[in-house]
Amino acid sequence: MPRSTRLFTRLSLARRRHLRAGVSLHSHTIHSRESFAGVPWTPPLNPAQAVALETAQIQDLGLEPLVSLTDHDNITAALELRATSAGRRAPISVEWSVPWRGAEIHLGIHNMPPARAGERMAALARFTTIPREYDLDDILDWLHEDPSTLIVWNHPLWDEGGLGAARFDSVAKEFLRAYRPWLHALEVNGLRPWKENHRVMRWAAAEALPAISGGDRHGCEPNAFLNLTRAATFAEFIDEVREDHRSRVLMMPQYSHSLVRRLWANWPNRYNRRDEAAILSFPTAGGRLRTGTENA
Description:
alpha/beta; 296 residues; 10 helices; 6-stranded mixed β-sheet
């Protein structure tokens, strides 16, 4: 793991004095459309509830909250928040679906410029619908040109489309090789097993990229990974990642618990017996983390 990325399992009082904010990235609301094992569903929280949940966890750490909601392929949550006085500075972010050589790539696009967010979202949606590979360089360059926008490859080693391990690993390496100049970080994901996340961190180190947190929260449990920062604003945090290649990732206690148990305990009456198979299809994080971590 490079010096630019540090993973903590506990936030000490001494470390907290040198930090200002906790950052919650990659989080879903009722505006995401999901399907597990063929069962369609939507996350239970509206944008305001989702922000409140993430904010409370960060404030419990004694830090100021910076929260970026990323629904699948739409920015409705951010626009709703920005229409209120409390949420007028909410970052406009999205989890963008990028079909690429048979794989399902998901990119977290955080903090798009408000004046151009609609135009950019429309371009992203067109690519998702009609994925012409030769357009992707221009789209990523267009997103990258704004220094206050962060581009993160979410769960980069998850073969979500079912290509098969060998084929997906090959496609993932090709994708990073092709688009490395426009990718600012690889994600450590709160709903993926530690073995996979550890591989992501090693891959990020080999590519001189920061590894960054992404909780991928869909239910009523707050994100299991956060970033820690001295930044006062989202733009300052992005500068810390993009320009300084610095990332401080905090693993929250819930990550060490079984993912099946986490989903079941934190879902408010959303599942019936037919849906249980969908929950059990998730891999578990499994066990407490020891290797490669430190106390903050």
